[in-house]
Amino acid sequence: MGVGLNTTYASLMTNAITNATGSGGEKVFCGPVDDPFFVDLAGAFDVGNFRPGGNGTNPTKDGLARFNVHSIALNIPIASLQKDGKTAEMAVNILDGDFVIGVWASASRKQMRTLNNMGMATASGNWIQVSRLGMPLTNEVVIPVGEKDRWNYTNPYSTDNTKNDLSFAKYFMNPELALYMDDSQFGTAVPSLNALRIQKHSLGSPRAEDNNPGFDFRNGKAGLFGLKGTPAVTGTALAESSFGPILLPNAISPRAVDLLPIFYTGVPNLPPYQLATGKMGNPLAVGKPFINNFLATLNDMLRLNMAVPPTPRNDPNFSSLGLIQAAAIGLTVAPFNTTANLEFIPNMDGFPNGRRLEDDVTTIELQAVGGLVLAAIGLWYDDYNSNGSPVTPNLVNALSFSAGPTRNDTTFKAGFPYVQTPWRGFDYTIQPRF
C-alpha cells in the first residue's frame, strides 16, 4: 500500500512530529521541506557580483527557489538548554549572559565508496567529517577558496591550533571580501558592492592641518590599535585586562575588533559594543545595550542569547535584517533612540544573535564586512561631519544595500516545524523573483 495516499503532505508533516519520550516537551520533525534559505547563488559565485536591483536581462533571482531539502527540526524548551535549567522568565534581564548558547553541526561520510560491476555502491572505512556549519556563510563568504576544504573537515574544539578555528582567525581580521569594498584595492571590480565602503578615516578631521586622520579599518591598516594600552580603553572590552590581546592583536588586523567577535566569540554587552545612542560622540563610552551573546571560546558557532524575547512577526518593525535593523532602530527611531537604557528593541533576536528563518543573512554579513557594525557603535563613515548628523549618505547606502532576494520564495508556518511543505517534483510554475 502506498504511504501517504488519500491525504495531504501537510497532514503527513503534522503526523510526523514526534514528542520525545519522558522529556520536558521536546519535539522532533524529520522530512523533506521547502528550502528556507534564499540567496542569489549566481551573484555569490561570481566574486560577490550580486544583483540587488536586477534588470530585464539579468534579474535578481533566488537560486534556491522551489528547491526542497531534508530537514531535522527540533523544538527544545529554553530550560533544557540553559546551564542551570532556568526558564527565560528567570533571567536577570534580556541580555543575561547565563542564557547564551552556541550551536554548530557537522556532516560525515564513510571514508571509502566502492562501486561493483553493477554500479551498486558500498561505503566502508572510518567516518570522515566533510562539512560543518555554525555561523551561516562563514565558509562561503569569509574563508578563502584554498582553505574551504580544510575548514569543512576541522573541529572548532581541537586543542591543536593547526586543526582548529584559531588557524583561520586571520581571515576575519583581514577579510578577503573587504578588498572589494576598498577603492585603493579592488573596489571598482565589483559594482554591486559600491554601496559598501569600509571606513578609512572614521572620526578623522576633514582638514589636513588638524593632523587627525581618524581610524582606518581597511585590510592591513591599524584600525583601533593606536588606542591599545591607553587610558582611552580602560573599562572597555579593549583593555589589556579584558579582551584587548584578542581584539587589538597588532597594527595590521583592523577587523579583529568587530568581525572576529561577531563570528568567533559573540559580542559582549561592554563598551564599545553598544549603540552610539547615549555615547555623546565618544565611541568608547557606555551606550545603549543591544546585544550580549558572548561565549569565552574562540571558535565558529551560531550564538544565541535565549533571554532575548522574539519579535512578533506582525510587529511593524520586524525586519529580515536582524540585528542590523535593531541597531538602526536604536539609533534613529523614537522612543528607542531617546534613552541609553537597556530595553527590548525589535529584531534583537535576529541574526547574528541566533538566526530566524526570515533573516537575510547574506545581506547582513556583507553589510558587516562593509563596516556597518563599526558605524552602529559610533565609528561613523568617512563622510560624517562632527557638526552634523551621523546618518550620512554613506551610512544610508550601507543600510539600503541588498544582496538580491530579501525573503524566501514561499511562506513559513506559524507553528512547529515552521518550515513549509515541499514543492511538487513536477510543478514547473515560473519561479517568483524578488
Key descriptive features of the protein:
single chain; 434 residues; alpha+beta; 2 domains; three-stranded antiparallel sheet; two-stranded antiparallel ribbon; 12 helices; globular
The number of helical runs is: 12
Number of domains: 2
- What fraction of residues sit in β-strands? 5-15%
| Major sheet details | 3 strands, antiparallel
Which regions contain 5 or more consecutive residues with pLDDT less than 50? none
Annotation, overall tally of beta strands? 7
Oligomer state of the chains in this structure: single chain
> Within the largest sheet, what's the order of strands?
1-2-3
- Give average pLDDT, whole number: 90
Radius of gyration: 23 Å
Helix content percent band:
10-25%
Gross morphology: globular
Give me the strand/helix succession: HEEHEHEEEHHHHHEHHHH
Distance between the termini: 42 Å
Structural class: alpha+beta
Task: Walk me through the structure.
By secondary structure, the chain is α+β, with helices and mostly antiparallel strands. It folds into 2 domains: about 1-90 and about 410-434, no CATH class; about 95-400, no CATH class. It has 12 helices and 7 strands. It has helices spanning about 10-15, 40-45, 80, 140, 150-155, 170-175, 245, 260-265, 320-330, 360-370, 370-375, 395-400; strands at about 20, 25-35, 70-75, 100-105, 105-115, 120-135, 300-305. It has a 3-stranded antiparallel sheet with strand order 1-2-3. Strands 4-7 form a two-stranded antiparallel ribbon. A two-stranded antiparallel sheet has the order 5-6. A hairpin with a 5-residue loop joins β5 (about 105-115) and β6. It is globular. The mean pLDDT is about 90.
